[in-house]
Amino acid sequence: MPLVRVEIPAALREFSHGIETVEVGGEDVGQVLLALATRFPALRDRLLTSQDRLQSSILVYLNEKDIRYLDRERTRLSEADTLTLHAALGGG
Amino acid sequence: MATRRRTEVAKRQEARPALRKDQIDRYSRHLLLPEVGAAGQRKLLDAKVLLVGAGGLGAPAALYLAAAGVGTLGIVDFDTVDASNLQRQVLYTSADVGRPKVQVAAERLQGLNPDVTVEQHPVRLERENARKILERYDVVLDGTDNFATRYLVNDACVLLGRPNVQASIYRFEGQASVFDARRGPCYRCLFPQPPPPELVPNCATAGVLGVLPGLLGTIQATEAIKLVLGVGEPLVGRLFLIDALSLRTRELSLEKNPDCVLCGPHATQTDLIDYPAFCGETEADEPEHVPEITPEELAPLLVTKGRPFLLDVREQGEWEIAHLEGARLIPGRELATRSREVPDGREVVVYCKSGRRSAAATRLLIDLGRRRVRSLKGGLEAWADRMDPSMPRY
């Protein structure tokens, strides 16, 4: 199972105990997101719907590419890939 | 439609006389730039730019747009200046507290540059008035503080064919992009749905570094000026991100979503919609139906021997501003895992800032089997209003 680096944005770090980057194992993006939600339970609702699908207000980039234009949660991962999360911000 | 609009803009530019002597003095540093020059400055003087929101983002953006000589600045904001705005909303001074923001902004901006006409829109932007207000302007800057208005501004801009220069902030983090569906993605391409309302981060309770909207608001002004001048590479199809704590910036490449309901090839949304409902705010506005206690009922209980356990479900920073004596802080997001810290068998009164989070926490405790739990109606705001006017507000 490949180990990938996941970058957690500042807006979500309060739910990851302040951790900025973490290494998580998973064959595809969906597995990594679930593993991340297990590791940081407070992140679960922010990242995933009750059906464990990615929330529409969260962007996930595999390296430099939005996973929605790859194979979404089923996008396959390789060792040393980087997943970047980004949350919609609303403040002004 | 787009051709007619281009003709209108061209006509305005042709009708504009040469710069006056005082304008040459004022804009000389622009005139020296080959990318601006006299022709560019005339474009700026002709331009009509709308700021939606005159808050943290809108205030610095407005100052730079006015200083740059943007001829017509529209400002939409229904709010009045509050003391808590002054930490970041640099358009306003202490003497302005309580006054309508659009009125203060108009005075300040016209004082800064008499070339600028400020059009005041002291209203809440809504489905019913958005098209009529936005259609008068060439470029729209979105500096609002809620998702419902962000989707409304996006949709109106797409339907009217206007560029939407958007920025948003949270604590130490900001993002900016130019959404122009005619040549790139719109906001819905990026975020088809807003976050669930209960998970929406809010600067009013989470805080924001005062200078952060200054950074992002001036980026918005930069992009608006570039769009008016037609120079440089606008932030179309790119999302600029900044984390002020590390001062790291990065850019995400954005694509036009072929499934976008608004700007995609098979768009199904052809008009504005009910945005508070779309963002789930209507339901959130109606707090959970849980047992409540008013400040007047709570006050006498606090001096009795069997006083209730006071549970504060806000965040640490809010607690440090003000809290009820003897209360215990357990942020609402941690309550599910820390509910054992709430004593069983004793009456519990849960409170937050306004009563909404405490209602949700009360529901959670009841669902966990607690029986004697009530939510403080109206929260600390009501308590400060009616029981303790000396309590600091935020």
Could you give a short description of this structure?
Chain A is α+β, with helices and mostly antiparallel strands and about 90 residues long. Chain A has helices at about 30-40, 45, and strands at about 5, 20-25, 60, 65, 80-85.
What is the terminal separation of chain B in angstroms?
46 Å
Pairing-aware structural class of the strands and helices of chain B? alpha/beta
Quaternary state of this entry equals heterodimer
- List the chains of the largest interface with their residue counts: A-B, 26 and 47 residues
From the alpha carbons, calculate the radius of gyration of chain A and give it in angstroms.
12 Å
Shape of chain A: globular
Instruction: Pick out the low-confidence regions of chain B.
Output: none
Share of helix among residues of chain A?
Answer: 10-25%
Residue-averaged pLDDT of chain B, rounded?
93
End-to-end separation of chain A in angstroms reads 42 Å
Major sheet summary line of chain A: 5 strands, mixed
Strand content of chain A: 25-35%
Q: State the strand order across the main sheet of chain A.
A: 2-1-5-3-4
CATH class of chain A: Alpha Beta
What can you see in these coordinates?
The complex is a heterodimer of chains A (about 90) and B (about 400). Chain A is α+β, with helices and mostly antiparallel strands. Chain A has a single domain (about 5-85), classed as Roll (Ubiquitin-like (UB roll)). In chain A, about 15% of the residues lie in helices and about 25% in strands. Chain A contains two helices and five strands, in the order ββααβββ. Chain A has helices at about 30-40, 45; strands at about 5, 20-25, 60, 65, 80-85. A five-stranded mixed beta sheet of chain A has the order 2-1-5-3-4, covered by helices on one side. The longest helix of chain A is centred in the middle third of the chain and has 11 residues, at about 30-40. Chain A is globular, with a radius of gyration of 12 Å. Chain B is α/β, with parallel strands linked by helices and about 400 residues long. Chain B has helices at about 1-15, 20-25, 30, 35-45, 60-70, 100-110, 130-135, 145-160, 185-190, 205, 210-230, 275-280, 280-285, 295-300, 315-320, 335-340, 355-365, 380-385; strands at about 50, 70-75, 115-120, 140, 165-170, 175-180, 240-245, 250-255, 290-295, 310, 330, 350, 375. In chain B, the strands form two sheets. Chain B has an eight-stranded mixed beta sheet with strand order 3-2-1-4-5-6-7-8, with helices on both faces. In chain B, a hairpin with a 4-residue loop joins strand 7 and strand 8. The radius of gyration of chain B is 24 Å and the shape is elongated. Classes of the chains: A alpha+beta (about 90), B alpha/beta (about 400). The interface of A and B includes residues 11, 15, 56 and 90 of A.
